[in-house]
């Protein structure tokens, strides 16, 4: 059996009472130090930081809205997260924003989005054209870029001419451009079904120009299939006459031209005009015109209308020739001027020819020195 606890005496109670009060005071001070008591006004709790996705939505929502859009509800902070007020934003907000952008952003016209395949010629010639198109020059500086002569539409009806082709022959010329001079050889071969024509220009040991034309014959005369043009230190350029497709394509420019009957290249015209004048006596009189559509290897094309100037003597290496002169006058200041003198005693082949592009172009010249049988 347990013993009873000893009874407390009045003296012990008097000693314990101050100790109890001190213990309560210590507990209160400790609680205050740990923050249990608030010694200042409560601070507003910080709002949750918006996510990156919410920032994108808020920027879009601040764009100008249509007049029929409801006003933003009051009391919703601009940085409120989607979870805080999911029903505050209208469901059709993306559609409204798209409609607003369509009304405020000007769209470019449809014509500005279309790039034409074939560029039209400029209204005024550029200053770079003063030296003339490089494809008409015989001597080319390696540092000069080759400007292109814009294609001209065939705006004149080309008459149908009879033709009488000359026999094969080799013509040797003196070739000049300004103060420079050299030699040129024009080799013409044909068998009644096919032809080959080549012009080689040389200055000393250097070949500065090689042009060739090959093809067949049709009712309009020469029917070129391929024309190539090569200059010193420059790659070969070519024009391809796709007769079945009715078009002319080129090795360089992505341009296609319509192939018209009787169209010649920059070399075959020399034989074509001789064949026409040989077969058409009326075209040998002063004032008569011979019209030929001429195409180069750089997609340059235009009608060359040769006007008969009349009889004119030409001094050649074989003596003076009583020739018939034809002049192709330019259509503008920078167009190509061509003069050609045909020899009636040698199938009306050229004994002299000059070509010039623009007022500042020196031009080049071919003057006959010798007529020999082809090799």
Largest sheet, order of strands side by side? 8-7-6-5-4-3-2-1-15-14-13-12-11-10-9
Unreliable spans: 1-5, 30-87, 97-151
Shape: elongated
Count of beta strands? 15
CATH level 1 class label of one domain = Mainly Beta
Biggest sheet details: 15 strands, mixed
Number of helices: 4
Mean pLDDT: 74
List the helices and strands and how they pair.
Layout: H1 10-33, H2 52-61, H3 93-104, E1 169-177, E2 180-190, E3 194-203, E4 206-218, E5 221-231, E6 237-242, E7 247-250, E8 257-258, E9 264-265, H4 269-279, E10 289-295, E11 301-316, E12 319-328, E13 336-343, E14 349-357, E15 364-372
Parallel strand pairs: 9-10
Antiparallel strand pairs: 1-2, 1-15, 2-3, 3-4, 4-5, 5-6, 6-7, 7-8, 10-11, 11-12, 12-13, 13-14, 14-15
Report what the structure shows.
The protein has a domain at 167-372: Clam (outer membrane lipoprotein receptor (LolB), chain A). The chain is α+β, with helices and mostly antiparallel strands and 375 residues long. Residues 1-5, 30-87 and 97-151 have low confidence and may be disordered. The radius of gyration is 47 Å and the shape is elongated. Strands 8-7-6-5-4-3-2-1-15-14-13-12-11-10-9 form a 15-stranded mixed sheet. It is 15% helix and 34% strand.
Salient structural properties:
15-stranded mixed beta sheet; 4 helices; disordered N terminus; 15 strands; 375 residues; outer membrane lipoprotein receptor (LolB), chain A; 15% helix; alpha+beta
Give a brief outline of the structure:
This protein is α+β, with helices and mostly antiparallel strands. It has helices at residues 10-33, 52-61, 93-104, 269-279; strands at 169-177, 180-190, 194-203, 206-218, 221-231, 237-242, 247-250, 257-258, 264-265, 289-295, 301-316, 319-328, 336-343, 349-357, 364-372.
């Amino acid at each position: 059996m347990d013993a009873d606890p000893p009874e407390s005496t009045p003296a012990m109670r008097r000693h314990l009472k101050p100790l109890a009060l001190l213990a309560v005071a210590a507990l209160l001070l400790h609680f205050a130090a740990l923050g249990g008591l608030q010694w200042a006004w409560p601070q507003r709790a910080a709002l949750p930081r918006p996510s990156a996705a919410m920032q994108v939505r808020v920027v879009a929502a601040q764009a100008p809205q249509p007049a029929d859009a409801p006003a933003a509800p009051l009391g919703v902070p601009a940085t409120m997260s989607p979870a805080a007020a999911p029903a505050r934003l209208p469901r059709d907000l993306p559609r409204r924003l798209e409609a607003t952008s369509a009304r405020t952003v000007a769209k470019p016209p449809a014509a500005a989005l279309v790039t034409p395949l074939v560029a039209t010629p400029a209204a005024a010639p550029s200053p770079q054209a003063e030296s003339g198109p490089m494809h008409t020059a015989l001597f080319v500086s390696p540092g000069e870029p080759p400007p292109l002569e814009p294609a001209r539409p065939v705006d004149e009806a080309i008459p149908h001419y009879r033709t009488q082709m000359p026999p094969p022959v080799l013509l040797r010329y003196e070739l000049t451009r300004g103060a420079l001079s050299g030699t040129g050889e024009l080799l013409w071969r044909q068998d009644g079904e096919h032809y080959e024509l080549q012009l080689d220009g040389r200055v000393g040991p250097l070949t500065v120009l090689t042009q060739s034309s090959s093809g067949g014959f049709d009712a309009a005369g020469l029917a070129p299939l391929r024309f190539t043009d090569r200059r010193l230190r420059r790659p070969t350029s070519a024009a391809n006459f796709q007769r079945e497709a009715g078009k002319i394509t080129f090795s360089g420019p992505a341009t296609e031209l319509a192939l018209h009957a009787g169209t010649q290249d920059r070399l075959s015209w020399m034989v074509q005009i001789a064949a026409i004048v040989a077969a058409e006596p009326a075209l040998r009189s002063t004032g008569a015109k011979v019209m030929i559509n001429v195409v180069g290897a750089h997609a340059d094309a235009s009608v060359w209308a040769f006007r008969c100037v009349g009889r004119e003597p030409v001094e050649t290496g074989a003596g003076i020739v009583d020739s018939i002169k034809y002049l192709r006058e330019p259509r503008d200041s920078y167009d190509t001027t061509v003069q050609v003198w045909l020899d009636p005693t040698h199938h009306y082949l050229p004994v002299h020819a000059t070509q010039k592009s623009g007022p500042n172009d020196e031009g080049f010249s071919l003057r006959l020195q010798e007529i020999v049988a082809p090799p």
